């Protein structure tokens, strides 16, 4: 495999830790959920928000029409620099979380629970859930697992320092993008979300994933009116099971609702996945120590190419060093360390080389570092960076035209093995 990042310090880059023969250097076993004792250590009863925070931003002026269905609030002690909800939830890894109240409160579904999350202050979040008859210990454990926030979880503050020392560009953007955390997603929803991501944008992906949930999932809280289905505060649906998608989803229905050619991939992948064991099959891949084997298993499914496999592996299968390569990451590579690739196309070897370069620079959590740099490329977060940095980071228009993936590159990104 071609290596393009030298060991030692060179051009502002320090080698952190490399992978060997495609094998991941960190143990793959991760706890399925935090223990009750560990969760209790990180969760505390609801406390009074800081008086310096406006009441409307603290969620204390609660006009939620379904508030009566939700539990009391409980607090999760996670600092802003470890988890910024506005930088994590809408940045292309979670597609069914919505916000209102100026992005302070977030609405989503985790398993069979409707959740509301909001930041109380710089030190903690608070959460409530429905239906409220679920034991709170179960919800807390699920939430901590989803947030990857338990006593032995990686701390972004330490990782940011390590990555900033390893890469000049990371060190420049890091102060403005603190708290961009990689979450631990349900592998079924993650897989079908990224099957929908092919040649797509975040808004349209969100619409497709939301349609799958509303059409084939189950309501967590029954909607009172048709309008409720279009209100982020009242629309909560589980994501459908593999079996439901395999047996009920049709290509015609999905095409009629804007899925295009992805409709066939969704239906075919659901049936193929059901034949392999469904959810249990995907969950078992979390215990696979070889990242290449995880990719081989995923790309055997219809509609899953290299980029989709990398996204699913990183975000739901504990492959913390996996590097999804899309247009943004290709441009980062060309701009930062592969200047000779200007005007070139993305080949299989170059895809591998980009991943190797990230792993050489950023170590066993290279995929998490990639997540920060990816967010820095998105228009929604450009405003967080100083104006001069935004201008300096942009590739000239002519170069963007040359380096954006064309037909050959898309074949690499989307091909199934």
Automatic annotation (TrEMBL):
Reaction(s) catalysed (UniProt annotation): 2'-deoxyribonucleotide-(2'-deoxyribose 5'-phosphate)-2'-deoxyribonucleotide-DNA = a 3'-end 2'-deoxyribonucleotide-(2,3-dehydro-2,3-deoxyribose 5'-phosphate)-DNA + a 5'-end 5'-phospho-2'-deoxyribonucleoside-DNA + H(+)
Pfam families listed in its UniProt record: HhH-GPD, OGG_N
Cellular localisation: Nucleus
Residue stretches of biased makeup (Basic and acidic residues): 45-60
One of the record's GO cellular component terms: nucleus
Enzyme Commission number: 4.2.99.18
GO molecular function: 8-oxo-7,8-dihydroguanine DNA N-glycosylase activity; class I DNA-(apurinic or apyrimidinic site) endonuclease activity; damaged DNA binding
Keyword ATP-binding: no
Keywords: DNA damage, DNA repair, Glycosidase, Hydrolase, Lyase, Multifunctional enzyme, Nucleus
GO BP: any one term: nucleotide-excision repair
UniProt KW Hydrolase keyword: yes
Xref: CDD domains: ENDO3c (cd00056)
InterPro entries tied to this protein: DNA_glycosylase, HhH-GPD_domain, HhH_base_excis_C, OGG_N, Oxidative_DNA_repair_enzyme
SUPFAM superfamilies found in the cross-reference section: DNA-glycosylase, TATA-box binding protein-like
Residues of the HhH-GPD domain: 196-377
Region (Disordered) location: 36-60, 396-417
Family, similarity comment: Belongs to the type-1 OGG1 family.
Name used for this protein in its record: DNA-(apurinic or apyrimidinic site) lyase
Natural source organism: Cyanidium caldarium (Red alga)
């Amino acid at each position: 495999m071609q290596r393009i990042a030298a060991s030692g310090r060179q051009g502002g880059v320090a080698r952190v830790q490399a992978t060997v023969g495609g094998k991941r250097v960190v143990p793959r076993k991760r706890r399925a959920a935090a223990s009750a004792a560990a969760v209790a250590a990180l969760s505390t009863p609801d406390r009074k928000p800081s008086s310096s925070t406006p009441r409307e931003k603290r969620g204390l002026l609660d006009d939620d029409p379904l508030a009566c269905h939700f539990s009391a609030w409980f607090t999760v002690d996670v600092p802003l620099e470890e988890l910024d909800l506005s930088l994590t939830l809408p940045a292309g890894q979670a597609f069914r979380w919505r916000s209102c109240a100026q992005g302070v409160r977030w609405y989503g579904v985790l398993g069979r629970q409707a959740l509301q999350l909001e930041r109380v202050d710089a030190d903690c979040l608070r959460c409530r859930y429905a239906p409220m008859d679920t034991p709170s210990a179960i919800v807390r454990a699920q939430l901590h697992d989803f947030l990857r926030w338990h006593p032995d979880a990686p701390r972004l503050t330490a990782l940011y320092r390590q990555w900033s020392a390893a890469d000049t560009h990371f060190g420049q953007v890091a102060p403005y993008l603190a708290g961009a955390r990689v979450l631990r997603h349900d592998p079924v929803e993650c897989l079908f979300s990224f099957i929908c991501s092919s040649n797509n944008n975040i808004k349209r992906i969100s619409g497709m994933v939301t349609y799958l949930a509303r059409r084939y999932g189950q309501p967590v809280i029954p909607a009172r009116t048709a309008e409720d289905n279009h209100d982020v505060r009242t629309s909560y649906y589980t994501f459908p099971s593999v079996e439901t998608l395999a047996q009920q989803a049709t290509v015609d229905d999905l095409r009629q609702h804007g899925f295009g050619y992805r409709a066939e991939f969704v239906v075919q992948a659901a049936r193929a996945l059901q034949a392999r064991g469904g959810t249990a099959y995907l969950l078992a891949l979390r215990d696979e120590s070889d990242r290449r084997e995880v990719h081989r298993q995923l790309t055997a499914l219809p509609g899953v190419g290299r980029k989709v496999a990398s996204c699913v592996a990183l975000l739901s299968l504990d492959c913390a060093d996996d590097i999804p390569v899309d247009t943004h990451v290709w441009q980062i590579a060309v701009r930062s360390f592969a200047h000779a690739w200007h005007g070139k196309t993305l080949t299989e070897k170059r895809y591998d080389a980009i991943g190797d370069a990230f792993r050489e620079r950023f170590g066993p959590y290279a995929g998490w570092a990639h997540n920060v740099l990816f967010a820095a490329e998105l228009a929604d977060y450009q405003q967080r960076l100083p104006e001069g940095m935004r201008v300096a980071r942009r590739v000239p228009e002519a170069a963007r035209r040359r380096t954006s993936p064309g037909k050959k590159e898309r074949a690499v990104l989307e091909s199934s093995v």
